[in-house]
Fold this protein.
Amino acid sequence: MRLRLPAAAALCASLLLPIMAYASEQCPAQQETLQVPADLALCASLEDDVRKPSQFTLDVYQQKLGTYLRAYCHRNPGSGWKADKTIRDTGPFTAALKDGKWVGSYHGTHAPVVIWYSPEMYTWLKANRPADEHLAPANPAPVPDGAMMIKEMYPAPAAACRGIDVNRLQPTSGAAVMVRDSKGAHDGWFWGWFGWKGWEPDWPAQAGNGYPNMGFGQYCVNCHASAKDNSTFAALRNIEGEAGKPLAFLSQHWFQGQGTQPDENFAALLNHLRVVQESDDVTPQGAAARTGYDPEFTKFFGLPFTKPERLPSLAMPSQTYDNVWAQAGMPKTLQPFLTSDQCIGCHDAGSTGLQFDMTRPGHGGKLLNLSPFGTWSTSPMGLAGRDPIFFAQLSSEVETFHRESSKLVEDTCLGCHGVMGQRQFKIDQKAAGQGCTPFSREVLNATPFPTGPHAKNAAYGALGRDGVSCTTCHTMALSESERAKVAAETQNSCVAERQAFLNPDNKGFAKTFTGSFLTGAPDQIIGPFPDPKVKPMENALGLTPAHNTQIQSAEVCGSCHTVHLPVLNKGKVIGHTYEQTTYAEWAFSDYRTGLTPDGPLPMGPGAKVETCQGCHMPSRDAEGKPIRSKIASIQEHSNFPEADNTLEPEEIDLEVREGFASHVLVGLNTFLIKMAQQFPDIMGIRTQDPMLTRKGLDPLLYTEQAIAHQAEAKTADIRVSNLTMNNGAIEADINVMNKAGHKFPSGVGFRRAFVEFQVLDRDGATLWSSGRTNAMGVLTDEKGEPIDGEVWWNSDCSVRQNPLAHQPHYQVITQQNQAQIYQELVSSPPADGPAQCGVGSRPAGELTTSFLSICSNVKDNRLLPKGFLKRDERIAVAQALGAGSELADEAGPAQVGDDPDYAAGGGDTVRYRIDLAQVKGVPAAVQATLYYQATPPFYLQDRFCTSKSTDTERLFFMAGRLNLEGSKAENWKLRMVSTGQVALPQP
């Protein structure tokens, strides 16, 4: 984050004892003057405050603690502090011959240390961990509040500085700090790192949005949760004046006395230091954003507001503030949700700095992070609470489409995109007697710094910004029996009210649609592997990991990816409709398992059984082999340097698991990921994994590559058949095959895919094209003019143009102003008169992007999945899920005529018939390419023309400067698959 490692100190004076001379040459920590407290009055004034971190805001406490440590107040022998007998290693130091010289590698959990123990800590150790273990109490007392340990860290190996008076040493690698505060957190400690140079408090957040240096619930528990009690390994035998020998490790340091300097910076390799260094990845890898607006962008997109410039108001709150830990003594029913930084220490790769499970070698000697946190954090799920596209959509809903229902709309939408914040807010409000108070967009801006009225909502803001996070999915109650047990518990406050509003006629699992799931036992966290090690997580978070195979079921995804919403018209609910049916599309396809956590479904399994997780959380490598890895990174007994006072080996040694699943969770929204890459400062995110740091590949690049792989290999195929050229015409059938287990596209209705069909000359120049675009991804004709449906607003956003104009579903295309677009289009209720909405209703309003204005279906020719069930079969499955026949109908196609491809599903064939009189030149080949647009131009135009909010300005600023040049999404369209050039047969 902020630490800059200092250069090696100058050699000390030569008038020292021989051992001191050796040490001074190798010990850059040595100072000429004693590093002891000079202002005892200052130290005395801080003694009480530094022992009470929970009584201050973090910035205030860090200032006090920083002043205390910088003055070396803990080194005052008169205050009763004790220290280790000597500088000691925390792991082996090994030598190797490299390029003709000896170099060393350090394998410690920390840099070499001298630990200082406050009087309270020393007294506790004497009573609870006596030198004679037989005298130790069977049940150790809690460490008393106010006890402190300052773990000063020095150059590796320890021998480099051994023999020098510790009071002449400045800890060049800083210090790990532990302050006991049982009221502050479940684990009872305040954790942190302090540096005598280059350190500053975490608040205000700095550029880079770094992981905090200090706080409750810090990643330090990844090791300390393996301690047998009180989250500390401290032992008397290490302390000056106590019996016994300190821990010692192999140290092959002889070469350091031969004038040869090692070529590695050992301290920089240590995880406990690397995590708090300023990122060396401060600029995004890949293409940088444009320095100004793309002229083509501003030419096409009109604005009802002044073109935004880069201002602090555009930035989302920093990720540095997203820290909600397990509170001390808090009933779990009142705090079921924690931010992902509480899981990062154990479930991110490399977090111990010694073991690198959950990785594989990548480019440039760096590691590819396959850990749950590493892959999830830059996925659309991990970014859901910061998604600039979603927030601009929400702004349109509350400013223009449904201003009179703004509170209801924000609460409904944030129940998915800000789920943890929304739910925790309601839990607390109801517990305080305020009822199920609506959750607002404004709360997501709340941060703990600076102090003020908004700060009271900081925890909800942090939880909401953390997206669809760990304690969302891993706490779900998935079966009817589980739901019945917990429905009335506090952690499910207000869920019944949400279900009644969103799914009034549904039963069973269908009542949980639109993110209306219940969470299970509040002291459990569920996972797919049997026999998890429970003690470390119980120690750290008060949660017991439990085996539950149901977390591998599609229903984990189905609750949120079946979106059932009210149809709002002038502030009134006039019906309900399905905005998206991804789960149902899968349940009606050949990929269905035919099973739910409640048992079998009608029609049984399909011919190609695969759950959502099988595609979106792959557990096999490119060759199809199961991925094998441990699922966490903790201090183990068998695989770590020895530590005192650990749990038993069988409680902390982890198994290698087969079927380890990546949490990459991508669809095809590469535009969101490119925005995160190029505008991390505006999205408030860090650009480097905080555990792997410089050893890891850029996680956003990996997510982008995962999307590209999904697009190219796992979503669709395209081919040319029946290609002829005779009778003055070219004819070709383009077959598009859907390989996904649901419709393609699926999810939110504005996603679309389209076919570009080209007739080419022998040099590859385009002679005729359907589906061509301009630089903004706008579909155009041969004259470069947008085709019907591409432009919704005039240039100043004052008038809607052709409110129902669109490209219909084609079975035959003959003109260049026609394009086969696979999409869903819906219309709003009419502006005047009664609304006739629902399945089969006639569109009477205008095309809309509002999720809560869906009255009639104008078109839905999205590719059906293979093996799509007949209507009566779909109804049977829908009813078994607890839904009505409308789910079966709305998951099906609309306005596709008599096209036989939309009976059994699996793809579509469109015929291109081109009159050669339209073709200027000599045709030699044809080519068909399938493209995808997560945010089509008409959709973005509707965002910019229907809201003037900061959220909309943010999206305009980022989209207008987004640099897609050279990427697979160049010209605002993701290239998926292509036939390549197919030669025309000659007549």
